[in-house]
Amino acid sequence: MNLPGPVPLAIVIPAYKTRFLGETLASIAAQSNRNFKLYIGDDCSPEPVADVVRQFTDKMDITYHRFDTNLGGVSLTRHWERCLRLSAEPWLWCFGDDDCMEPGCVDAFFAELEKTGAGHDLYRFNTRWINGAGETISESPAHPLEETGGDFLEARLRGARNSTLQELIFSRHAWETSGGIPDFPLAWASDDAFIARLGVRRLIRTIFGPCVRWRLSDANISNSGSPAAAAGKIRASMEFVRWIIDYFENYAKPMKTGIVPLTEQWFNSYVTHFEKFLGWRNSVELERLATRAWGHPAGAGLWWALKNNALVASHKFNRKILRRP
């Protein structure tokens, strides 16, 4: 299906890595519906992004722009936002430089847009996770057909849902008027907050059928185990908790009483499951969070951080020194 008139969809790739970029562009070139314009924002990468893009300029309508400064190293979300501003189309799809879309994704979006009369601010696909070889390693739990932003956050906190920015197509008007993509360290949980933000005014709508293939490999930040990345994710998680509590206070207050303890359970589960050390800065921040958001007595956050670090150290000692599981 190809709609008449101006191209209504911008596919925007904030690019830095080239390892899988060719596969990404090939999956876009394979779309049965070509009613889109592709924008590629090169984050002043040391890798040959332009050379890879050049291989596809005769296959799609592509605008390539190389930025003079690297912004992703400071703020991924700010780089995403400046790439989105390269475009002018009414619908936006911010896609990864290492992910893939199944062949019918664009067609399915326009079919859903027509079916719903463009009555939603945010449309989303279900996702399949793939590894570096492109093999499917898991499928995210299916999204419901429609839900509010508050319902999504509750499901996310309960561990019943995954999300990625790459599965989202959103209206330019909603992006511009909502305040954009929330800026957390390493963009950790920024997509979750953005989904909830766009689910305030109108229900979030799921597109069933073809999926987005989201890549989990040693090349992306989600799989980084460095101490700096771990500290950044913990800091982002605490900022996300505060953001969630403010969100329910402003937009879904009747749900807030049940949500606050869920944020604590979610945070504790994340840190414990992934065995993350809490440095002094994050320990102090956790103390503030525990007393001001979760209502614990003074010292509770610092005590939890101390116990967590002792447990993590014990596990690492057992595995590395004593060779125990």
Q: Can you summarize this structure?
A:
The chain is an alpha/beta fold. Helices cover 42% and strands 17% of the residues. The protein has helices at 21-29, 49-54, 76-84, 105-116, 149-157, 172-178, 190-198, 227-251, 256-273, 280-292, 300-320, and strands at residues 9-15, 36-42, 62-66, 91-94, 100-101, 122-130, 136-139, 146-147, 168-171, 204-215.
Characterise this structure.
With 325 residues, the chain is of the alpha/beta class. It has two domains: 9-222, Alpha-Beta Complex (Spore Coat Polysaccharide Biosynthesis Protein SpsA, Chain A), CATH 3.90.550.10; 225-320. 42% of the residues lie in helices and 17% in strands. It has helices at residues 21-29, 49-54, 76-84, 105-116, 149-157, 172-178, 190-198, 227-251, 256-273, 280-292, 300-320, and strands at residues 9-15, 36-42, 62-66, 91-94, 100-101, 122-130, 136-139, 146-147, 168-171, 204-215. Strands 1, 2, 3, 4, 5, 6, 7, 8, 9 and 10 form a ten-stranded mixed sheet that branches. The protein is globular and about 60 Å long. The N and C termini lie far apart (54 Å). The relative contact order is 0.11. The mean pLDDT is 93.
